[in-house]
Amino acid sequence: MKQRPIQVDAIKQMITQIALCQVNPDIDLGISGQGADRLVSSLYGPTQACREDPGVDIYRERLERMDQAALQAESTGFARAMHDTGLVSPYHAVLLRHLLEEGDHLLSEALGLSSTGRDCLLCYRELVQALIRGGVYPATSQAVYGLALMLERGILYQPPVAPAMWRQLNLPLSEWAQSRLQMAYGDIASPRARLIEGVLCMLGLPLGVGQGE
Length: 213
Hints:
By secondary structure, the chain is mainly α. Helices cover 62% and strands 0% of the residues.
């Protein structure tokens, strides 16, 4: 995980198997299981409100009842887990979509941005919000990490990039492209969301291509 690969589906599946072993009383992981706790919690319970892995629907309802202080705590917890491990919980995607209606400060906190990334977020607010609406879902949660690192690197300040991202958002996908994306990733998320996730991860983690094999 130190390599920060783009393709993490296999890693997430492995962590899921470890989580299942942890709750199985017939399996004793011993000392080896202690180091996996951080990875398991980063996916299935990185913050207080989702500690017991309640499911995204219940978590979404909990967000609706939270005040600003609680949302701040959730944002900080998710950002810390994401940057520590390079893995993004599906709950993080739910939070980010919820924060679109809460203002830029909490959005910045949830992405774990420094002053550089925050300035880029404020400068390209409409584009960032459109990218979240179009590409950030529980099934495409790694898009959150790609977006955060893209903002941190200031790539959007390069003249061709922001217009290209707007074109990407409005790009009509051919039936062939949609079928290929669905064949590769299934139909839990739309082909368009999968494509946007891939673009964000490529721009945010260019050195992650080919890593983690």
